[in-house]
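Let's practice the habit of predicting before peeking. Look at the sequence and jot down your guess about where helices and strands might fall. Then scroll down.
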Amino acid sequence: MSKAAALFARWRVRLGYFLAVFVLWFARPTAHSIIFGAIVGALGLCLRAYAAGYLRKQSVLTVSGPYRYTRNPLYLGSSVLALGAGIATRSWISAAILVVYFALVYAVVMRREEQELFVQHGEAFKAYAAAVPLFFPRLTAAKLDGASAGSFSFAQYKKNHEYEAAVGFSLLLLVFLLKWRFWPG
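Done guessing? Here is the structure:
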């Protein structure tokens, strides 16, 4: 992967904060858009939480739980979360900023991580990648030779700091509520 792509992957969160200013500026939330966006975003948070409870970063190749359907359930959950945020904004401009950001950033990040996993896990990752799609999930769980069943662990969820996504989304919804109430479009 190029140095530019590696830099882009490292700075993705900071870039997201910068773009959040524009998303908020163009947002025109209403009570209904915030509620509907919160419901959709909650589905994304649930998927992220479920995936984080299985993920053992840097120690093993995680191929159980939601990882039997997609290689990137955390990013799939993030995209649903972003969809929820876009709905809450009730702004095509804000939604477009979110879509473009997630499409560009996560395309680069997923490919970079894919290369790292291949280097770390070799043929096991190659077999996994052949059976499980990169992003959009399979309809049925992949049957992988030699894969352990694995199970969800709340301790692993906490270790992965996944609760931070819920806190961040809740704060974003609070900002949308304040904007709706005090700075209506």
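How did you do? Residues 70 and 133 are 5 Å apart (CA to CA).
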